[in-house]
Specification:
The complex is a heterodimer of chains A (about 110) and B (about 110). Chain A is mainly beta and about 110 residues long. In chain A, about 0% of the residues lie in helices and about 55% in strands. In chain A, strands 2, 4, 5, 9, 10 and 11 form a 6-stranded mixed β-sheet that branches. In chain A, strands 1-3-8-7-6 form a 5-stranded antiparallel β-sheet, with no helix packed on it. Chain B is an all-beta fold. Chain B is built from no helices and 11 strands. In chain B, strands 2, 4, 5, 6, 9, 10 and 11 form a 7-stranded mixed β-sheet that branches. Chain B has a 4-stranded antiparallel β-sheet with strand order 1-3-8-7, with no helix packed on it. Classes of the chains: A mainly beta (about 110), B mainly beta (about 110). At the A-B interface, strand 4, strand 5, strand 9 and strand 10 of A face strand 5 and strand 10 of B.
């Protein structure tokens, strides 16, 4: 049972435009959500997170939105840059314990 | 500060063999977690160690085991390898147990089972 779902395996966006990556979860006990970015041959690196008490968190070009009623979160990247091309993983945790990851979305930003 | 170091980087084994993977956490980090990444399942949690004790365990068969040493270095072992064990095994470290917001990942060990 996939508790964290990223239904889009890939996304292509032009440089300068907005990238929107989506994530759905089924476990209502999750209270902390994170996004990781992964380049080939490297480990995932932390990008941005959001606690369930918030509905938005912003860090530079990256913004994460949380809709608890819909059990949905999204990552917005504005403006997108070619260096953002990577696999993005959505992850969730309950009580800051272990992470449950989605399967990832490969983002390709073309010049 | 050196990052999380995983060795070896690549490994090729045959079915039925066993394998041991090593992880050295960031200096000062006392918690080590292991994850398996496959194309079909994404990243799945294996186990977490803190102070040489397993604190959490994912839903994997008993063929997957691990341990942590007094210097916080960790090893994971997979016995009686199966084709489906082919995956990227990622280690992550954090200062304390249960600090998912401060996890730092290594580059992983790519295991191929033939």
């Amino acid at each position: 049972d996939q508790q964290v779902k990223q239904n889009s395996p890939s996304l292509s966006v032009q440089e300068g435009r907005i990238s929107i990556l989506n994530c759905d979860y089924t476990n209502s006990m999750f209270d902390y959500f994170l996004w990781y970015k992964k380049y080939p041959a490297e480990g995932p690196t932390f990008l941005i997170s959001i606690s369930s008490i918030k509905d938005k968190n912003e860090d530079g070009r990256f913004t994460v939105f949380l809709n608890k009623s819909a059990k949905h979160l999204s990552l917005h990247i504005v403006p997108s840059q070619p260096g953002d091309s990577a696999v993005y993983f959505c992850a969730a945790s309950k009580g800051y314990s272990t992470l449950t990851f989605g399967k990832g979305t490969m983002l390709l930003v073309s010049p | 500060k050196a990052g999380v170091t995983q060795t070896p980087r690549y490994l090729i084994k045959t079915r039925g063999q066993q394998v041991t993977l090593s992880c050295s956490p960031i200096s000062g980090h006392r918690s080590v977690s292991w994850y398996q990444q496959t194309p079909g399942q994404g990243l799945q949690f294996l186990f977490e160690y803190f102070s040489e004790t397993q604190r959490n365990k994912g839903n994997f068969p008993g063929r997957f085991s691990g341990r942590q040493f007094s210097n916080s270095r960790s090893e994971m072992n997979v016995s009686t390898l199966e084709l489906g064990d082919s995956a990227l095994y990622l280690c992550a470290s954090s200062l304390d147990w249960g600090r998912v917001e401060k996890l730092f990942f290594g580059s992983g060990t790519q295991l191929s089972v033939l």
